[in-house]
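Example record for the data management plan.
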Amino acid sequence: MTEGYLGNQNLKPAGVEVPFSEEDVKEYVKCSQDPVYFVRKYIKIVSLDEGLIPFDLYDYQEDIIETVHANRFVIAKLPRQTGKSTTMVSYLLHYILFNQDVNVAILANKLATARELLHRLKLAYEYLPKWMQQGIVEWNKGSIELENGSKILASATSSSAVRGGSFNMIFLDEFAYVPPGVAEEFFSSVYPTISSGKTTKVLIVSTPKGLNMFYRFWVDAQEGRNQYVPIDVHWSQVPGRDDKWKQQTIANTSEEQFQTEFECDFVGSSATLISSHKLKTLAYKKPLFKNDEGLAVYEKPQKDKTYAMCVDTSRGQGKDYSAFIIVDVTTVPYKLVAVYRNNTIPPMLYPNAIRAAGKQYNNAHVLIEINDIGGQVADILHNDLEYDNILQVSVKGRKGQVLDGGFGKGGSQLGIRTTSVTKRLGCSILKSLIEEDKFIVEDIDAVNELTSFISKRNSYEADDGHHDDVAMSMVMFSWMTTQPYFKELLDSDIRDAMYGDKMKQVEEEMTPFGFIDDGVGDIGGYEIDGDGTVWRQADDWIRRD
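Corresponding structural encoding:
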């Protein structure tokens, strides 16, 4: 008997030779060429009822292994308790065993989960015949290294998890449960390394949880917009699961939980403002343009259309987002044509982005939420940048806040203060607009925020770990559509008359000392070039109005 690795007789140390019979050689070659055969014959798993047993693959598990083996990019949407993790680590074991000098990363939403997956792989490895094993160089809780130069690492999914490393295969488990923002940061830092290879692999596996990055990858895979091969398994494909099992499971848990964890429903919450049935039908599309600052454009400005912009402001400290939406309000249904979302822009600079986008969209009517730092944004936009189409609100007794044109009336303020009354009305109207197809929303961030915009404390707000800045901009817009003044804005004759009155007021208030143009407000914005299809950040803004 050969001495085991660090006293473990089930592991072959590096440098130890094990004799091969002629049959062993044939078996080794067959296993290297057929991962399904290898898993069926040599992988052992721990069953809750029977202990250590051979891994008897179901048909769909064979299909998963064959698909992963044949393709570089695979995304799998799988229900709970389908053996997905065991299936994946079995293939990973085959991959490092029969390939030299490959690096593999097992990444999960939690470090403990990733290490548990590696533990399953190590357990299966220990029960391989010694003639099939590679010698062990390293055998730790978080990583192993084999004598053939192959390594495997277990870590939590994060932007720094595998930074600086070179990996031939990355397995992302429960990717839909990775915290918002982390998934995007991870791919922006890791994907360039993966895409530079010709045989590198990415395997994404998860049960759905909302319309996040996993949802985007899945939909794009189904519609052929990316290179991922989609794998979809239904709970009924697992032997022993039928309608009776379904009813028992629902009785022991809940309908909502079953929809999410077994039906793989991306939208399973019944507490959302928008009905789950409607949320499932909301399709997103790729923007015409999206820049690094967070501006996504879905429809370029059109000369004879009227646009409204609703603005929500944060402190730019990397937490909540400063966000605005631009809506084509010319006709019903209203259409979301641009979205801005940035959680690092300082409030002092935010008005520049608002003004630039507003100018491009035909001097859009701008409604700003002024509960906190938004008041400062409104003042800069009005006083320093001289944007002349900021909507004003006044308080009218029992009517509460009312949208009006300002025109020097006492009590008018630049923007709206969100109160329980305005929010309740805005939420009610937003629900009606979207569910009755009177407000077209095709932005993925907007749709995703709606899926986590849930009932809390007699109101609606983002679920834990999510944001609602774009959603609140849509609530603000919905409130605005109930106002008589908003309807006047859409009447071209009334609009022209109001514009004339506004210009007359400005002329009367002008001082006789002339103007000094110092260019304030025309630097660092965004501009549409040529026919309006390409946006760029302008170093030197050229006034075009």
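Summary line stored alongside the record: The chain has two domains: 22-233, 289-396+428-510.
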